[in-house]
Design brief:
The protein has helices at 13-25, 38-53, 102-116, 133-138, and strands spanning 4-7, 57-64, 67-75, 85-93, 121-127, 142-152, 158-167. The chain is an alpha+beta fold and 169 residues long. The chain has a domain at 4-120: Aminopeptidase (3-Layer(aba) Sandwich), CATH 3.40.630. β2 and β3 form a beta hairpin. α1 (13-25) packs across α2 (38-53). The longest helix has 16 residues, at 38-53.
Amino acid sequence: MDITIKPVGLEDTAALAELLVQTVAAGGSVSFMHPLPPAQAEDFWRSSLEAAARGGRVVLGAFVTGRLVGTVTLLLDCPPNQPHRGEIAKMMTAVAFRGNGIARALLQEAERRAIAAGRTLLTLDTAEEAGAAGLYERLGYTKAGVIPDFALKPHGGLVGTVLFYKRVG
């Protein structure tokens, strides 16, 4: 499968929103509840892409034959005492494309961009149940701990979050 990873822009808002709605419907714990109205998903991505345009983050998309099938965000706008750190957020792969190396490719590009931006430490969190902990561990992230009952699952009920970090660069 030929995967192209590149920054996304406002022209990709509808595709990003569709991916977010699909991810939440499938139970992905990415800060939203099901059912997620498409307009709310579009508002989220528009705001995120505007922050990217100001340099506070990088929003990457994974494309297969021109179709957006995954995304990840590298947050760079950290507090003044943490200029060495970045955060991985909103890692999503379309359900039909999972297991094809898309998340791995996205994360590796995010890491390359973090290093280029002078970051030496990346952090992230994922749901304790049905999250991507195994992926992050395979890619060299270290589990720092679990916070129980951290958030609501998209379809209801509490779920813990697993915190990870990785030294890069």
